[in-house]
Write a structure and sequence with these properties.
Number of strands: 20
Largest sheet: 8 strands, mixed
Structural class: alpha+beta
Shape: flat
Distance between the termini: 51 Å
Order of helices and strands: EEEEEEHHHEEEHHHEEEHEEEEEEEEH
Radius of gyration: 23 Å
Helix content: 25-40%
Strand content: 15-25%
Strand order of the largest sheet: 19-14-18-15-12-11-10-20
Length: 355
Amino acid sequence: MKWGDSTRDSEIALAVWPNYRPRFGNWLMQELVEQGDKAPIWRDRRVPTEDGRVRGDLYPDREAAASAAATLNQAFREALAARDMEAAKKHSLQLKVEKSLQSKQRLHDEEGLMLADARRRHANDPRPVSSEIVLPAESEPFRQELSEQLSEMPYLRVVLVGEPARRWHRSILYLSHDNMWSKPYAAGERSAAIAMRARIANGFGFSADAHWGKTKAKIRQILLPRANQLLQLASVQRMLAEALANGQRVLVSNGVVFWYEEDGGIGWQVKHTTSTKESEGSTLWKEGTIRSINHGRLVILPYIKESGEQVRGHTRNGPNDGRAKPRHPDHYVDIPFAQLDGDLMIGLFGELPYE
């Protein structure tokens, strides 16, 4: 196929995001494409070759893909800003693009945080000796590779093996209940994705092939006490002290909120971010404020509807928590919030020093 033979080649891309493909061991750029009056959609990105043909927009590692994505997204933002179109429609489209990129980034940061804590939980587990791993004869060629992965993540029960360069021969190994690894099974896209999920799910004692959304919901509940433990770390206390000195009383990252409660001398505490049915499909309003009229444990962050309406954030309790303790009207507070870098939060959960 030559570039331009397909109508998709002339469709307008609004943003890109690098997507890891475990079966192939590379990164394929995805693009957010305009769909007229309909919501933009994500799809695999194609680009022309030097001889005018078509190929996927592939990258060998995340660093190269992320660098290309940053450059492309800046160009797409400038192109959209310069377009001659009705102001309200342009603003709505810009919000949709921002929402889509935020969603991708939140997912990436959240799973990175979960992986960091899964590995931390098993940091002191005994590592299997390579020669003692029980393998059938068919899996013997993968002994060294399996041993290396188990040295990093000894809790794994599903492993993707085989050199990425020989992608058509990548295999999946499964650990049985009698502690014996299986024969190799040819890796498909779904089984390779499950093997990647195992790096998180198995670390918390969950099956990698269970419903992924439900599994992550359970992990979020497990992480809340872990987030509270962070308040005891000297590195986190230093970070929060610096934030308070700079006038910041609410720091948000990866679904965790560090919240400074001045009333009653409580000090720093941990809350969770959540959403409403309306806010789920909207864009985070980074300049918005959170009005707290109660002591709820959940924080709804400020958001912008696709109509452009700006909704202030608030606090509340969860469905089974009972009514949140109200504040006295004299103690209602409107608090701006700051977002922590996702990688910083991952580092904190991994107990890396804050710098």
